[in-house]
Amino acid sequence: MLTCFTIYSASTYLRLDFQGARVLVTAGTKGVGKAVVGVLKQRGARVLTTARHAPAECSADIFVAADLTTAEGCASVAQAVQAQMGGVDAIIHVVGGNEWQIAQLARHAAMSRSAFFAAFNETVGMPPGQYLLFWRMSLAKKALVSSKEKIEQIAFHIGYQSASAFNVAFTQYVGVPPGVFRRQNEAAQTHTPALNEARALP
């Protein structure tokens, strides 16, 4: 049976391991979706993802080429989920690239702006704007470390309309610009194997 993915607070989400969970991620072959698939795989999930066209490479366990704006595309994904995974425990619809506003989110939830803000804050433990920033920065850090995408592409994929706006937001949130963050992690990854090899020498 298909079930909806639950929104967790930031602290709870970071503790989840998804071990053994069967997860469907829409648009999981690039940008935000690809980063989401990577996080889920690290935490033990079996992931099926979709896109309109097959990518050159895909980190999900199963890929289905389908246009989810059509009934036929949705049906083909549902069939693949049942046939290849025996069902699904969670569905994540990737929409991180949208330039979300609280009023827009409230309309999607069929609530007033004030009611949505209060309900979200009570459920998640932080205001929607703060959570969206946390989620975008988490995806940005993942993409900077695990992909070769240009910073401009990452900025667009997580919902920023310009690289400069993303640079400012990332620097304020993380403490260093995205380019510096990427280089620091590349240096750390290069240094760790060499250090381990040196420690193994007699």
TrEMBL record:
The keyword DNA-binding applies. GO terms for molecular function: DNA-binding transcription factor activity; sequence-specific DNA binding. It comes from the Bacteria. InterPro entries: AraC_XylS_family_regulators (IPR050204), HTH_AraC (IPR018060), HTH_AraC-typ_CS (IPR018062), NAD(P)-bd_dom_sf (IPR036291), SDR_fam (IPR002347). Keywords: DNA-binding, Transcription, Transcription regulation. Residues 98-184 form the HTH araC/xylS-type domain. This is AraC-type DNA-binding protein. It comes from Kosakonia oryziphila.
